[in-house]
Amino acid sequence: MNNGLRSDIDSCLRVVSMALDYGWKWTKGDAESFAHQAGWIVAPEFEGRSMHALLTNFDIQRPEATLHFSHGRLDRISFLVTDVVPSPGDEFGFLLDAFTESSTELSEVLGDPTARFPGKRPIVRWDLETMRIDLTILGTAVSLSLNSPAYRKYMDDVDD
After folding, report:
1. Residue 56 contacts residue 64 (beta carbons within 8 Å)
2. Alpha-carbon torsion 28, 128, 145, 108, what sign?
3. Staple partner for 58: which of 42, 43, 63, 111, CB 3.0–4.6 Å?
């Protein structure tokens, strides 16, 4: 039972396809340019901030994306693919179904995942030359992140 909860996998696929074709340098300019290209609303001020929220055009209750920066470089862009559920226990079936469908459809575009991490917070990962893409259930929603190569290396070093 999903109580009218929604996922917007089509918009997710559209953004991932755009990201694959984008000429990433992982700069602040890339963040603004890509967000505008995706049709997202960018607030005028985000100079010097480590995180910045955007409004996407996804058909979900909280169409949000976050830009994450460090040392003036764009580390990652993360966005919600589903509505946020009030309690993950009550609607975990909805989240798992949306996660599974998103993973399947993304695999059609990206190929087989590089890694899968099962559990209550599963992750499906694709390591590409220009970015790492992570699809995950973050407790109360399905989220996707586009991670820069430098951020990917940093996270790999932390995990070792």
Report:
1. yes
2. positive
3. 63
Q: How would you classify the pairing of strands 73-80 and 115-117?
A: unpaired
First-to-last CA distance in the chain?
Answer: 40
pLDDT tens digits along 97-145: 999 999 999 999 999 999 999 988 999 999 999 999 999 999 899 999 9
Length of the chain: 160
For the chain, where are the E strands, in sequence order?
51-55, 64-70, 73-80, 115-117, 123-127, 132-137, 142-147
Neighbouring-strand partners of residue 132? 127, 147
Residue 6: what pLDDT?
A: 95
d(CA 122, CA 32): 30
